[in-house]
Amino acid sequence: MERTLRLNDTDVSENPAVWSHDPSMMWDPESRRYYSYSTDVYRPESGLCEKRGIPVRSSDDLVHFKYEGTVLSQKAAEEGADNGDYPETEGFWAPFAEYVHGEYRLYYSATKAFGSSESRIWLAVADGPLGPFENRGVVVDTWGTDDTYPNGIDPHIVRDGGKCFLVYGSFFGGIYIKELDEKTGLPADKDPRSLGKCISRKPDDATSDGPEGAAVIYVPETGYFYLFQSYGWLGDDYDIRVGRSRHAEGPYTDVDGADLRGESMGLKLAGSYCFRAENPCVKTDENADGNADRNADGNADRNTDENGWEWGGIRGPGHGVPFYDPVSKRYFFVHHFRDGASVNRVYDEEEQRASYTVHYMMVRPMFFVDGWPVFGPEPYQGEKFEPLSPEEAKGTGEGLTFAAADNRMTFSGETEMEDAEGCTGNCVIYRCPDFENGGTVTVVTGIDNSGLAYWKKFMYSIV
Question: Which InterPro entries is this protein grouped with (predicted)?
Answer without folding.
Answer: GH43_arabinanases, Glyco_hydro_43, Glyco_hydro_beta-prop_sf
